[in-house]
From TrEMBL:
It holds the Pfam family HTH_31. InterPro entries: Cro/C1-type_HTH, DUF5753. It comes from the Bacteria. This is Helix-turn-helix domain-containing protein. Coiled coil: none annotated. Residues 86-266 form the DUF5753 domain.
C-alpha cells in the first residue's frame, strides 16, 4: 500500500484527505499494525491511487479481508478451528448475501450458544481436545452470529435446513427446543430467510453442507463446503459456483415456503420427546 501511494505521488495526509478514515489509520495499515476495516474504504483508496485493474483490486481486497479477520479470529485459533477459517470468516463478514444448505444441523450462525456448545462438546472426546478448545469454538460461532444481527448492514442469509436438524436431540430436549424457538425468531428478521426441507415427499435432496457467498462487486462469489475431515474447502471458480447455485435453486423449490416454515418448526418442537 505504501508503494502504491508513493508511486501515485501522495503524502499520507493527501491520501487520506476526504476519505472515511484517518491519517493515523492509513499509517497503521501501511506498517501492518492494523488493516482498513471496510472493503469500500480500501477500494476508494485504490481508486485515488489510480489502480484500475480489477484483478489487482480483487487480490488486494482478498488480502485485506484475510488480514482484517486474522486480527480477531486469532483469539479463537485452536485445533477445533479449520485452517481456512480465518479466510472464510473474513469473506463471510463482508458478504452481501449467503445462501446456505445444512441437511442435518442448523446453519452455524443460527445456532444458540447452548446448542453450539453441545455440538462441540460431542466432538471433544473424538478430537481429544480440552474444554478451553470447546469454549473458543463456541465464542467464534457466537461472534460470527453478529454478522447477521448487527444494526448496520447485516449480512443477508437464505438458509435451507433439513427436517432432521429439528429432530436430532443435541444436548437435551430443552436445548433443541430453545434452538427451534431461536430459528423461528430469527426468521422474522428482514435480512434472514429460512426454509425447511421436509423428510417426506418426492423432493430434490443433497447430502452435504454448503454455502454460497455473494460478494457483490467486491469479489467473485465463493462456494464453501465442509469435507469429511471437518475442514473447509472454498472455490471461486465460476463453474463450481454455478453448480452449487443450481443445487440451491432446486433445494429452494423443494423446501417449504418461508411463510410456512415457522409453524412447521413449532410443530416439530412440540413433538420432541
Amino acid at each position: 500500500m505504501r508503494r502504491l501511494r508513493l508511486t501515485a505521488g501522495y503524502t499520507i495526509e493527501e491520501a487520506a484527505e476526504g476519505l472515511p478514515f484517518s491519517e493515523a489509520m492509513l499509517q497503521r495499515a501501511e506498517t501492518g499494525l492494523s488493516s482498513l476495516r471496510q472493503s469500500g474504504h480500501l477500494r476508494s483508496l485504490l481508486e485515488r491511487y489510480g489502480v484500475s485493474d480489477e484483478r489487482s483490486i480483487e487480490e488486494l481486497l482478498d488480502i485485506q479481508r484475510e488480514a482484517s479477520s486474522e486480527e480477531w479470529v486469532s483469539d479463537y485459533k485452536d485445533v477445533m478451528t479449520p485452517p481456512l477459517m480465518s479466510k472464510f470468516v473474513g469473506i463471510e463478514e463482508e458478504a452481501r448475501m449467503i445462501r446456505a444448505f445444512h441437511p442435518l444441523l442448523p446453519w452455524g450462525s443460527l445456532q444458540t450458544e447452548s446448542y453450539a456448545r453441545a455440538i462441540f462438546a460431542m466432538q471433544q472426546p473424538v478430537l481429544e481436545v480440552t474444554s478451553e478448545s470447546v469454549d473458543k469454538a463456541v465464542r467464534l460461532r457466537m461472534r460470527r452470529r453478529e454478522f447477521l444481527t448487527r444494526d448496520e448492514e447485516p449480512v443477508r442469509l437464505h438458509a435451507i435446513i433439513g427436517e432432521p436438524a429439528f429432530r436430532h436431540v443435541i444436548g437435551d430436549i430443552e436445548v433443541l427446543q430453545e434452538q427451534c424457538r431461536e430459528i423461528v425468531m430469527l426468521s422474522e428478521r428482514e435480512n434472514i430467510t429460512i426454509q425447511v426441507l421436509p423428510s417426506s415427499g418426492h423432493r430434490y435432496r443433497f447430502t452435504g453442507d454448503f454455502s454460497i457467498l455473494d460478494m457483490g462487486n467486491v469479489l467473485p462469489s465463493q462456494v464453501q463446503v465442509d469435507n469429511a475431515w471437518g475442514a473447509l474447502s472454498m472455490s471461486g471458480k465460476p463453474r463450481d459456483v454455478g453448480v452449487f447455485s443450481r443445487r440451491f435453486e432446486r433445494l429452494t423449490a423443494s423446501a417449504l415456503p418461508p411463510e410456512e416454515t415457522p409453524e412447521f418448526i413449532r410443530t416439530l418442537a412440540r413433538e420432541i420427546k
